[in-house]
Amino acid sequence: MGGPGGPGFPLAFGQSKAKFQMEPNTGVTFDDVAGVDEAKQDFMEVVEFLKKPERFTAVGARIPKGVLLVGPPGTGKTLLAKAIAGEAGVPFFSISGSEFVEMFVGVGASRVRDLFKKAKENAPCIVFVDEIDAVGRQRGTGIGGGNDEREQTLNQLLTEMDGFEGNTGIIVIAATNRADILDSALLRPGRFDRQVTVDVPDIRGRTEILKVHASNKKFDSDVSLEVIAMRTPGFSGADLANLLNEAAILAGRRGKTAISSKEIDDSIDRIVAGMEGTVMTQAKVL
């Protein structure tokens, strides 16, 4: 048996595995985030809160404690949160909601305390919780120890946010694609005061995103980013980045020095219809 907190004791779970990451400077700005102009506009205020809080407190304004980013996967929610920290020049703490919950009750709550303790030491800062629905879903909707653990973690998160007295300089940004299942206590004023929707981009947004991801790639003169944007309705920012990367890989594989329309066409087909390949016949299996 190990000593307390050692291999033989589950006590080490609470302290040792706080998997949050801290970036003193993300190096990401709003210029790196394209296709979400409305969301960026909402977050300009948050940047101002972090940079010049006295401007708002002087007129009696209460700085929002939390912002909820709602949108499908791949739409740039994490990148947007990093850009806010980068624009404001403050540290960025990030963790996934699923990393809070372990099979031992009390571990998640301990990790929440640890995360906010570090955040307070480095204020002003941004705390980003991805997939908050993993820990923030409505309480009382399940049975068993795992549910007790999740509820304890959620209660601790609410307690920490309620404990921000005055202007602490900590703004919590959470991301989810299932806002409908979140506990109502998370969404009341004083916790996640604001909801910002980050949806899949429209044609103008797709063009802007393609320009960002095309800046370090070489294209033939017959390639038009506007035409690609027209052909990719429903694509998220991550899909568009993947599309151009696939095209670059195909161009390299074919020995070309620039990406042509052929590579773009093949990449769109590959992403929309799945990987191109030959059907394995019975003869090949045998």
UniProtKB/TrEMBL annotation:
It is found in: Membrane. Residues 63-202 form the AAA+ ATPase domain. Keywords: ATP-binding, Hydrolase, Membrane, Metal-binding, Metalloprotease, Nucleotide-binding, Protease, Transit peptide, Transmembrane, Transmembrane helix, Zinc. GO terms for molecular function: ATP binding; ATP hydrolysis activity; ATP-dependent peptidase activity; metal ion binding; metallopeptidase activity. The keyword S-adenosyl-L-methionine does not apply. It comes from the Eukaryota. Belongs to the AAA ATPase family. In the C-terminal section; belongs to the peptidase M41 family. This is ATP-dependent zinc metalloprotease FTSH, chloroplastic. It comes from Sesamum radiatum.
